[in-house]
Amino acid sequence: MTYREHFLKNWSLAYPVMLSQLGHVVVGVADSIMVGQLGTEELAAVSLGGAPFYVVMLFGIGVSYALTPLVAAADGQDQAFYIRNLLKHAIVLDALVGVLLFLLLYFGGPLVQYFDQEPNVVAIALPYLYIIGGSLIPVMIFQAFRQFAEGLSYTKQAMYISISANLLNILLNYLLIYGVWFFPELGVNGAGWATLISRVVMAIAMIVFVFRFKDFSQYITGFKFKNYAWTIWSKLLKIGVPSGLQFVFEVGAFAMAAIMVGWLGAIPLAAHQIALNLSGITYMTASGISAAATIRVGNQLGKSDISTLRTAGFTCLAMAAGFMAFCALVFIVGKTILPGFYVDDTSVIVLAADLLIVAAFFQISDGVQVVGLGSLRGLSDVKIPTLVTMVSYWFIAIPVGYVLGIMLDMGSIGIWIGLLIGLTLAAIAHVWRFNSLTKKLLV
Asked: Residue 332: what pLDDT?
């Protein structure tokens, strides 16, 4: 394949996943924009409630990612029966993880009141957190079927379903937040219920697609929920748990940053939420390229074509760097325009604009590090990258952010500079490891 053919193949796999991944963030963006019209405290509450939710949700999504490289490699070896077994085990595992994560949020949620946050914000945030926590179960069921389809290089269908669910979420937001027609006016909780309902619909739609799509018939025929083997669950967990922890360490660092910003007051926290929302859009979009890298690398690994594997991985990295450079330019040019879509508070807009400048600088690092993780996941290499992620964010980014932002009184800007440093170091380490491992496979 020529480089042009690699880019086209990567893009054909990546853009549906980009839009589908974006769906998870768009739900939060829609909540923030529509709740922002209620006031600064309400927007800060969505930020506070959303922080722990997205940490545990992305851990669950990371666990579900284990299915994709295993299916892709098995597809490269034409092992249809094994792929069917992988799907069966992944459905049960991901559903159980969804239940456990919901219980973790339900019983652990009240701990946010001990992080020195404003009492009014906490009072609004907790009910919202409990409601959106329930959506973790349908999200994880959706993910099991989605990662199966994507492992077989079918990425468009999940995109269509995610987009439809997002449109439903926005409609329900409008009806339930503001109490339109005969619907009750639920405020922030209305955004939570809209999220839960739309994700239940999303999961049902993905299940129906997989079981009725004719191209999947060889994997679905004879499908039964019995005869499980711990060896398959073990393979899924060995890749999935470290992948989930990678998300936890990164997103958890941003959640910790939100807590530190919360010490500065509701206005800085609202500005942080806006900048985080916008950065989340670009991050989840880049993670679509990461998913394409996992599929391409895993499939070529199954075929033992290491030269093509390397080219596929590096072209995905180049795509991520180019796309995120464009996003950085958008942040710089629109630094005062974009926050205006969220709130009318001038002080919040000014601070959010400053944070977007810092976010612009770490866009390329953020894109490269997440695609680097995806490429390594395609090699089933997850333990060392997880350690790198933990050190970059929790031993470097958060301490540096605390020193600059809190001790040296740089405020939220200092906290975000710490995140910039951590992301850059992680990106360098992941690219180096992918290059090193694949060179050894060539020998």
From this structure: 94
Q: Which helix (H) or strand (E) holds 157?
A: helix 156-178
Cα separation of the two ends of the chain: 21
Give the separation between CA 294 and CA 316, rounded to whole angstroms.
Answer: 10
Closest by CA position to 62, among listed 247, 281, 250, 295: 247
DSSP 278-290: HHHHHHHHHHHHH
Task: Name the CA radius of gyration of the chain, rounded.
Answer: 21
b/e per residue, 201-215, with b = 16+ CB within 10 A? bbbebbbebbeeeee
Structure tokens at 393: 């964010």
**In whole angstroms, how far apart are CA 427 and each of 269, 270, 423?**
27, 28, 6
Which two three-digit tokens encode residue 134?
């329930």
Q: CB of 355 within 8 A of CB of 388?
A: no
Which parts of the chain have pLDDT scores under 70?
1, 23-28, 115, 443
In this structure, are residues 266 and 41 in contact, taking their beta carbons and an 8 Å threshold?
A: yes
Structure tokens at 123: 């009072």
How many separate helices (H) and strands (E) can be counted in the chain? 17, 0
- pTM summary value: 0.79
- The candidate with the shortest Cα–Cα distance to 339, out of 251, 256, 277, 281, is 277
**Structure-token match 């500005």, residue found:** 271
Residue type, 218: Q
